[in-house]
Write a structure and sequence with these properties.
56% helix; 3-stranded antiparallel beta sheet
Length: 126
């Protein structure tokens, strides 16, 4: 029996499903983890994360801002300076992200071993 509770939790119009879909995005957890140490500028976040384009980072930050997880702070300076930080709501995700990170460290090799052992047709992403 699954420990996830009622099947109604993940109906298409359920806030929980919408939230899981947001968090399940390829870059969301990585960006949130990058912001967990405090305010960061866009360029610093790109260097911290690695492998993400400026465009995709901007899209991810905008989506997280729209969902209330990230705050964008623009400073009236020359040159202009913009920093991003977690909101109090976004900060509530640091614990679950840390738990997922610890799970990945503990089980990453087992996942890779399973992938190596899987038939080629199953190992390839769609």
């Amino acid at each position: 029996m699954s420990g996830f509770g009622s099947g109604e939790l993940f109906l298409a119009d359920c806030p929980a499903r919408l939230t899981v879909e947001l968090i399940a995005d390829k870059w969301t957890v990585v960006v949130l983890a990058g912001l967990s140490g405090g305010p960061v500028r866009h360029g610093e976040l790109i260097e911290l994360i690695g492998g993400i384009s400026r465009k995709v980072l901007t899209q991810t930050l905008r989506r997280l801002e729209a969902h209330g997880l990230v705050r964008r702070q623009a400073y009236a300076e020359t040159p202009p300076r913009v920093e991003y930080e977690l909101t109090p709501l976004g900060t509530t995700l640091t614990g679950p992200i840390q738990a997922l990170t610890e799970w990945a460290r503990a089980n990453g090799d087992a996942v890779l071993d399973a992938l190596d052992a899987a038939p080629e047709s199953l190992a390839r992403p769609d």
